[in-house]
Design brief:
250 residues; D-Maltodextrin-Binding Protein, domain 2; five-stranded mixed beta sheet; 10 helices; elongated
Length: 250
């Protein structure tokens, strides 16, 4: 997508949100409660440290919102979770705001001698991944299936509840390798090495965001999303390693 096309897309989405009743912006003395995928921790807190954040696996956050958690905004690492809530009118219409890619990480010491993703098949390794209900866990299984490596699931020693847990275990040497988002490898780059995954195996990782229907501060929530879609918000995401908003699927 060209920079001009991206600007047009962002302007259109922002106009839609504002037309829905967005105000001038969130009130400084009334922070929003933002439920967000754990992979967004660094980007969101750098973009706007004044809000209240709850970071976790998107699947867990979806469940909490279904159970009435007092969130104003929900940002998911997979459209599945926002779209399911939208279908039952628990959030407003979701919009895509960024994208990501998957990588394999190993400890800097690399005790298992992993050089490529295919070494997972050839070597005895302790593999750490996320549970299948977690977006990064589902994306991991997509990669393994596309590469014909599903047998390496027998080498999994731990299935975690979010991507930060996977990253932490590998960084601490409690696993020989783990699949995480590229953005989550950046904060621990002094502790891990990154192994690229072939482009043909990369899943389409899109992040969606929506206003929670029960929010008592919808105007500020819409304004916050509009700001995230704007230049400063997109810059914060790019600085954290996220990818531009992808083209819509054909």
């Amino acid at each position: 997508m060209t920079s001009r096309a991206t600007s047009v897309l962002l302007a259109a989405v922002a106009a839609t949100l504002l037309a829905s009743g967005a105000g001038a912006g969130p009130s400084a003395d009334a922070p929003l409660t933002i439920y967000a995928a754990s992979s967004l921790t660094e980007a969101f807190t750098a973009f706007d440290p004044t809000q209240r954040y709850s970071f976790a696996g998107s699947n867990a956050l979806e469940t909490q919102i279904r159970n009435g958690a007092p969130a104003d905004v929900f940002a998911s690492a997979a459209p599945l979770h926002t779209q399911r809530l939208f279908r039952v009118e628990l959030v407003g219409k979701p919009v895509t705001f960024t994208a990501n890619r998957l990588v394999l990480i190993v400890p800097k010491s690399n005790p298992a001698g992993i050089r490529t993703v295919y070494d997972l098949r050839r070597k005895p390794v302790k593999l750490v991944i996320a549970a299948p209900a977690v977006p990064v866990g589902a994306y991991t299984r997509t990669v393994l299936r596309r590469l014909g490596l599903t047998r390496v699931l027998s080498k999994v020693v731990s299935e975690e509840s979010d991507v930060k847990a996977v990253t932490g275990k590998v960084a601490l040497g409690q696993g020989d390798a783990g699949f995480v988002y590229a953005t989550d490898a950046r904060p621990v780059r002094s502790q891990v090495s990154v192994i690229r995954i072939p482009a043909r195996a990369q899943p389409r990782i899109r992040y969606e965001i929506a206003v929670v229907s029960r929010s008592a501060n919808k105007s500020a929530a819409r304004a916050w999303i509009t700001s995230l879609l704007g230049t400063r918000g997109q810059r914060a995401l790019r600085n954290a390693g996220f990818l531009p908003i992808p083209k819509a699927a054909p």
